[in-house]
């Protein structure tokens, strides 16, 4: 019997193939049970996320082709297989699981959500009684690796997206964002993403303004905020902590006089202004005002890019941890 | 004997500074720095107790005693202001200042080797001296917070993010609040010190007391503007730093 991993992910398969193989959380356990009903398979764990579907199994020697056929028949998949599926066995399969659990194999390098998804997949298999000596020990070891990678390396440090960089800067100015207010000028996609990123960290109130009021209302409804008219947005400046601007206006929309007019009313509280429009929406002179922290798209992209580079630099350390953990005590099934 | 306590307090505070710096932002290790500072605080209390016995009054008569009393005051605020403060760089900055103040005390000539015992103890004089030094402990911390704010503000405004500056650093908002609140505590203590000084003098107005009163008024104006009208953080920070340096310079010349 041998440990194998058969899977497909965002790097090998387009979305229309990935969605065919994707399984909901409840279906993963059922799939595992069906898998171990096959006489060639002794143990099995099925992991399925929006970016990957993987089968970890303990099977008879030479049973990989059998497994691949079984998986494709389960999903009625008759398309091309070459380059879509990847396959690892023994120690390489174990290393791959450790990489996945640590976020090293994710679309956003170092993301942490995958750790919980791997845990849920294992839990589903455990509940379904589809694991035994080899996979139980392997997954426990992989969780240990994931924790070490998270705590001992910088693979998850820094924001790797524009929205994440805006949140990082806002937290450096305000600390916790709980209860803070956000204004979105322009109803574009980037504004929505940034506002949602701030909301996910505790921002409680979002005001949307746009030249087209129905578009402002639509975005406000989508993110649970309120809309104000484009000729009236300056009146809301007094209450907000963060302003995100992303209109397609060919001229500056936010000028120093808009902020100067409300400084006293704001009692000179700090104000973060994020300009993600090209051409820029916020007059750079606004950044000269003492309590204003103004950042444009270049700044945010630069931050995200540096964070991605730093994460890539951590990969070597992460690989060292995996090697150490898989070597320190022999795991069954890796021979 | 009392010098042994100063040496002990200095070693313990230095250890607190090292552990504090290593553990910045890390709660588990931050508690180690706390216990070193507790040790330093105990040594400071023992020193002040011995000197108080020798003087027969609050030990604030020579440079060494004043510095150690100020170090004790800083340590006191460090210990009572809570975990969040201690784990931030603001807390980390306190221990080195305490070490420097105690090194001044250890400097030859800073402490009277044969302190004169007071024949008459004026309680107003005692409370004037004690509360004034205690207030300067708080005002020192407010200035430290001001320096940190200026560093962070400059980096955030000039887009210099690449030096790992954020590790353990409090946010801009927290630093502004810390500056204002600690300065307010210092000002309240200074109020008690100045009022005690006015009562001590029995109607006589000394230059020392005039300077203390002017300092008190200037802090009151700065904090009044901040709390009533509002003030950009940078102006508050500079106000606290300039007032602190200016008042200390003037007092040292008197």
Mean pLDDT of chain B: 85
Physical arrangement of strands within the biggest beta sheet of chain A: 7-6-5-8-9-10
| The first-level CATH class name of the largest domain in chain A | Alpha Beta
CATH superfamily of the largest domain in chain A: Glutamyl-tRNA reductase, N-terminal domain
Describe the largest sheet of chain A: 6 strands, parallel
> Termini distance of chain A?
10 Å
Determine the structural class of chain A based on helices, strands and strand pairing: alpha/beta
Round the Cα radius of gyration of chain A to an integer and report it. Answer: 25 Å
Task: Give the terminus-to-terminus CA distance of chain B.
Answer: 31 Å
What's the assembly state of these chains?
A: heterodimer
Task: Explain what the structure shows.
The complex is a heterodimer of chains A (335) and B (254). Chain A is of the alpha/beta class and 335 residues long. Chain A folds into 2 domains: 2-152, Glutamyl-tRNA reductase, N-terminal domain (Beta Polymerase, domain 2, 2-Layer Sandwich); 162-302, Rossmann fold, CATH 3.40.50.720. In chain A, 45% of the residues lie in helices and 16% in strands. Chain A has a 6-stranded parallel sheet with strand order 7-6-5-8-9-10. A 4-stranded antiparallel sheet of chain A has the order 2-3-1-4, sandwiched between helices. With 254 residues, chain B is mostly helical. Helix content of chain B is 78%, strand content 0%. Chain B has helices at residues 2-22, 27-55, 63-80, 83-87, 89-106, 123-157, 172-200, 207-229, 233-253. In chain B, helix 3 packs across helix 6 (123-157). The two termini of chain B are 31 Å apart. The mean pLDDT of chain B is 85. The chains are: A alpha/beta (335), B mainly alpha (254).
């Amino acid at each position: 019997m041998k440990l194998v991993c058969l899977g497909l992910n965002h790097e090998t398969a387009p979305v229309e193939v990935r969605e065919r193989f994707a399984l909901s959380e409840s279906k993963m356990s059922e799939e595992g049970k069906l898998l171990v009903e096959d006489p060639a398979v002794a143990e099995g764990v099925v992991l399925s996320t929006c970016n990957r579907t993987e089968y970890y199994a303990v099977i008879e020697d030479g049973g990989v082709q059998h497994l691949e056929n079984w998986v494709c028949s389960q999903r009625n998949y008759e398309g091309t297989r070459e380059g879509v599926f990847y396959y690892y066995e023994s120690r390489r399969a174990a290393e791959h699981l450790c990489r996945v659990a640590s976020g090293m194999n994710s679309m956003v390098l170092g993301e942490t959500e995958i750790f919980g998804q791997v845990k849920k997949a294992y839990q589903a298999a455990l509940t379904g009684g589809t694991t035994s000596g080899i996979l139980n020990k392997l997954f426990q070891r992989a969780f240990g690796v994931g924790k070490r990678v998270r705590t001992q390396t910088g693979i998850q440090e820094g924001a790797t997206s524009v929205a994440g960089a805006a949140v990082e800067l806002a937290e450096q100015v305000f600390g916790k964002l709980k209860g803070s207010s956000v204004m979105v000028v322009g109803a574009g996609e980037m504004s929505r993403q940034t506002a949602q990123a701030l909301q996910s960290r505790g921002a409680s109130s979002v005001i949307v303004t746009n030249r087209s009021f129905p578009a402002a209302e639509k975005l406000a409804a989508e993110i649970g905020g309120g809309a104000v008219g484009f000729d009236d947005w300056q009146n809301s400046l007094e209450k907000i902590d963060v302003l995100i601007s992303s209109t397609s206006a060919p001229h500056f929309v936010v000028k120093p006089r808009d902020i100067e007019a409300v400084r006293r009313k704001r009692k000179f509280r700090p104000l973060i202004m994020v300009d993600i429009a090209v051409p820029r929406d916020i007059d750079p002179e606004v950044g000269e005002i003492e309590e204003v922290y103004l950042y444009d798209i270049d700044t945010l992209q630069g931050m995200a890019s540096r964070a991605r580079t730093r994460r890539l630099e951590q990969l070597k350390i992460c690989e060292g941890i995996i090697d150490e953990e898989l070597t320190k005590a022999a795991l069954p099934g890796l021979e | 004997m009392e010098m042994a306590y100063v040496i002990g307090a200095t070693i313990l505070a230095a250890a607190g500074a090292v552990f504090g710096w290593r553990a910045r932002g890390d709660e588990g290790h931050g508690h180690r720095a706390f216990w070193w500072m507790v040790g330093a605080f105990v040594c400071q209390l023992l020193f002040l107790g011995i000197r108080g016995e020798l003087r027969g009054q609050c030990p604030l008569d020579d440079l060494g005693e004043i510095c150690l009393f100020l170090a004790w005051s800083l340590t006191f605020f460090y210990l009572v202001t809570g975990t969040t403060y201690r784990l931030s760089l603001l807390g980390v900055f306190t221990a080195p200042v305490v070490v420097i103040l105690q090194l001044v005390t250890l400097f030859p000539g800073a402490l009277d080797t044969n302190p004169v015992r007071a024949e008459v103890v004026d309680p107003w004089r005692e409370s004037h001296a004690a509360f004034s030094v205690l207030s300067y402990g708080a005002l020192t911390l407010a200035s430290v917070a001001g320096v940190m704010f200026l560093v962070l503000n400059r980096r955030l405004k000039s887009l210099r993010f690449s030096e790992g500056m954020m590790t353990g650093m409090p946010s801009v908002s927290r630093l502004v609040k810390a500056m204002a609140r600690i300065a307010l505590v210092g000002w309240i203590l200074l109020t008690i010190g100045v009022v005690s000084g006015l009562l001590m003098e029995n109607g006589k107005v000394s230059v020392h007391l005039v300077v203390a009163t002017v300092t008190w008024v200037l802090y009151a104006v700065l904090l009044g503007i901040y709390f009533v009208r509002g003030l950009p953080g940078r102006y508050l920070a500079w106000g606290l730093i300039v007032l602190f340096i200016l008042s200390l310079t003037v007092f040292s010349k008197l």
